[in-house]
């Protein structure tokens, strides 16, 4: 369906829960509505799961667990690989669907299809590389075998900002490792996951291996699943506040957890940086997904010697950005996800201005239907401003000047978050010092975007636990078993 219309596409998206290989309504018949943030209009009405649906989904995942774990790794990998191929054929549909339910510009939605698809391909390859060790114990009296086994049924909870990639980044490694799952997408953007599961079904997914719950009552539905002793793992991507609650709930059942939480990325530009590259990287790190990314640069920490020039260049670029519905040609800035997001961005900007920052462009909600905020640049942000502490999650670029390297590192690390940092310098030794000193799980060194399915994505401090992607990603869904056997040569 290369030239599918919006209405045709939405008709093809399932509107029910997916449990044990069947599309079913919510047991109590409840529904929820999904909106286009660019127009405010309802685009689809779908099933709204309750507690009983949640437990039915867990039942299905538990029932399917042993057979899926016993399925040859090559066969598990081929389900993922076929799904990757199908996704390439349907890239137009998935890109349009994400733009409709989440608002991101279509060009970026295609980028997410490419990125999200790579997790299916990468983990189709990793499924056959689950290995162990065999060795002699130091005393020489026995043999030590170390083997890897699927953790067991998993609950996967995803956010609204990358509706496809956040789902594939969890589903693909879980399936490759031999785990069955219940996935609960965000209430604001559930359609992409429903459509993805339809695709996985075509790719050969057996019944019960992936189960989908769409719900407006996430805490009520996930609570009993997390408390159920049959669940063995919780993988969550979302805000730190919700992640902290889920870690507490998981403690009761001593669950394995992966937590991909909030960020407050520093973007450091040193006086010796290639400024053209730094500006290009800054625009990508800030305005991708209209700033609604956990990896979005939140604080531009720029050496005083180049701060004015950097500010002038980013402001020139930003004033040329087209704001509009993500489906329109040339749009760079789509809507924010909802009214609250617009209000939050504006409150942070007004607070910073009130404390002495300078507005270089933007600074207001856009006066049109939908939830739009002007692309904004502010400079001279003062210590103590809320924008330095909180995730902006909007198209606001805020510049803080610094004097020397010590100063830059101190400002960069002055946050409870630690997901990603960006550093622009042409001094190799300085770049290496930053790798060692910046407290983040990832770094872009003269790069404004770091995400890659082949790399371990994740944070330190309040940005989370565990890694997704790379060779590390599958281990989040495997547990290690050690077995000791006697020396086979002993009499
Ligand atoms: P959120 O925490 O509000 O919601 C995330 C998911 O959790 C949604 O599916 C939501 O329905 C569900 N949820 C909310 N409350 C819950 C509860 N009490 N119990 C169980 N489930 C609950 O986050 P969001 O607004 O959807 O996403 C934005 C946040 O996600 C930002 O903080 C962003 O930085 C973070 N994020 C992190 C990464 C990462 O990889 N580190 C990636 C994307 C987004």
Distinct ligands, ions and cofactors found in the model? nicotinamide-adenine-dinucleotide
Number of strands: 20
User: What percent of residues adopt helix (DSSP H or I)?
Assistant: 25-40%
Shape: globular
Biggest sheet statistics = 7 strands, mixed
CATH hierarchy: architecture of the largest domain? 3-Layer(aba) Sandwich
CATH class of the largest domain, please?
A: Alpha Beta
- Spans of at least 5 consecutive residues with low confidence: none
Overall pLDDT, averaged? 98
- How many structural domains can be distinguished in the coordinates? 2
Gyration radius over CA: 23 Å
Give the N-terminus to C-terminus distance in angstroms: 70 Å
GO biological process, one term: gamma-aminobutyric acid catabolic process
InterPro entries: Ald_DH/histidinol_DH, Ald_DH_C, Ald_DH_CS_GLU, Ald_DH_N, Aldehyde_DH_dom, Aldehyde_DH_Superfamily
Protein name: NAD-dependent succinate-semialdehyde dehydrogenase
Keywords: Oxidoreductase
What's this model, at a glance?
This protein is an alpha/beta fold and 491 residues long.
Describe the secondary-structure layout.
Layout: H1 6-12, E1 17-19, E2 22-24, E3 31-35, E4 42-47, H2 51-70, H3 73-89, H4 91-102, H5 106-126, E5 133-136, E6 142-150, E7 154-157, H6 165-177, E8 181-184, H7 191-202, E9 210-212, H8 218-227, E10 233-237, H9 240-252, E11 256-260, E12 265-269, H10 275-287, E13 297-303, H11 304-319, H12 339-354, E14 358-361, E15 376-379, E16 396-402, H13 405-413, E17 420-424, H14 428-437, E18 442-445, E19 464-465, E20 478-486
Helix pairs in contact: 2-8, 3-5, 3-6, 3-7, 4-5, 4-7, 5-6, 10-11
The site of nicotinamide-adenine-dinucleotide (NAD) has 27 residues, from α8 and α9.
């Amino acid at each position: 369906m290369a030239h599918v219309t919006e209405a045709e596409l939405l008709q093809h998206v399932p509107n029910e829960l997916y449990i044990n290989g069947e599309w079913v309504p919510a047991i109590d018949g409840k529904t929820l509505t999904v909106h286009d943030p660019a127009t405010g209009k309802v685009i689809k009405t779908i099933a709204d799961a309750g507690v009983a649906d949640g437990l039915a989904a867990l039942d299905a995942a538990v029932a399917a667990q042993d057979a899926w774990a016993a399925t040859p790794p090559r066969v598990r990998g081929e389900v993922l690989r076929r799904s990757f191929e199908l996704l390439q054929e349907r890239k137009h549909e998935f890109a349009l669907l994400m733009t409709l339910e989440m608002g991101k510009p279509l060009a970026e939605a295609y980028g997410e299809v490419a990125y999200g698809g790579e997790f299916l391909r990468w983990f189709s390859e990793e499924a056959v590389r689950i290995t162990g060790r065999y060795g002699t114990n130091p005393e020489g009296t026995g043999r030590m075998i170390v083997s890897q086994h699927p953790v067991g049924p998993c609950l996967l909870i995803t956010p609204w900002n990358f509706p496809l990639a956040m789902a594939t980044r969890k589903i693909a490694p879980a399936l490759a490792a031999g785990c069955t799952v219940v996935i609960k997408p965000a209430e604001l953007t559930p359609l992409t996951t429903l459509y993805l599961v339809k695709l996985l079904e075509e790719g050969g997914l057996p019944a019960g291996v992936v189960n989908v719950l769409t719900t407006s009552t996430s805490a009520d539905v996930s609570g009993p699943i997390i408390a159920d002793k049959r669940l063995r793992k919780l993988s969550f991507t979302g805000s730190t506040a919700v992640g902290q609650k889920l870690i507490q709930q998981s403690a009761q059942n001593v669950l394995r957890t992966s937590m991909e939480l909030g960020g407050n990325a520093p973007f450091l530009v040193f006086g010796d940086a290639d400024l053209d590259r730094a500006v290009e990287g800054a625009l990508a790190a800030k305005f991708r997904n209209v700033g609604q990314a956990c990896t979005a640069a939140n604080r531009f920490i720029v050496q005083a010697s180049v701060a004015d020039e950097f500010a002038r260049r980013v402001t020139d670029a930003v004033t040329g950005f087209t704001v509009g519905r993500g489906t329109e040609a040339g749009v760079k800035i789509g809507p924010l996800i909802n009214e609250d997001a617009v209000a939050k961005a504006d409150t942070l900007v007004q607070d910073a201005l009130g404390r002495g920052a300078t507005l270089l462009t933007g600074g207001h909600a856009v006066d049109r239907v939908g939830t739009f905020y002007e692309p904004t640049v502010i400079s001279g942000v003062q210590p103590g401003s809320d924008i330095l502490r909180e995730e902006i999650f909007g198209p606001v670029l805020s510049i803080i000047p610094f004097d020397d390297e010590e100063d830059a590192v101190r400002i960069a690390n002055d946050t409870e978050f630690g997901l990603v940092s960006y550093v622009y310098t042409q001094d190799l030794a300085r770049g290496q010092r930053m790798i060692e000193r910046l407290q983040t799980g990832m770094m872009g060194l003269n790069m404004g975007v770091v995400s890659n399915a082949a790399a371990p994505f994740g944070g330190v401090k309040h940005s989370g636990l565990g890694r997704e992607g790379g060779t590390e990603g599958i281990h989040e869904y495997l547990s290690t078993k050690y077995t000791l056997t006697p020396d086979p040569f002993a009499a």
